[in-house]
Amino acid sequence: MPLYEHVFLARQDLAQAQVDALAETATNIIESNGGRVVRTETWGLRNIAYRIQKNRKAHYVAVDFEAPAPVVAELERQTQINEDVIRYMTIRVDAHEQGPSAMMRRNERSERGDRGDRGDRGGRGRDDDRGDRGPRRERAEFDA
Hints:
Layout: E1 3-11, H1 16-32, E2 36-52, E3 55-66, H2 69-81, E4 85-93, H3 102-112
Antiparallel strand pairs: 1-3, 1-4, 2-3
């Protein structure tokens, strides 16, 4: 069977229990039509790039599954009807990612307080040590 990833964004004013119920509904649609859910991840409430239906944030949920093509059509039809879902996307993949997704790894790293791959490179040049950029110059006053 083909492999798919389905990601949907739920409204920001929903409770986490309601978001979990939406994920469970998607799982039920897939399994009742002959598919198999491999993994379901809730990425949490995150900022979105632009406002969608007056929402500045959304709950992100990802579902990895394998199913025949008619299951995808039914899942998207049911998702489109639901007013709590503001965006969704289903893509076909060659293989599912092993272990946690990139979004989950990113969340774990930010919770631990890691600085990522930056190492000891320091700040962004706003310290007293000005490096090779020379002394700080004050902005010139312009006479009108």
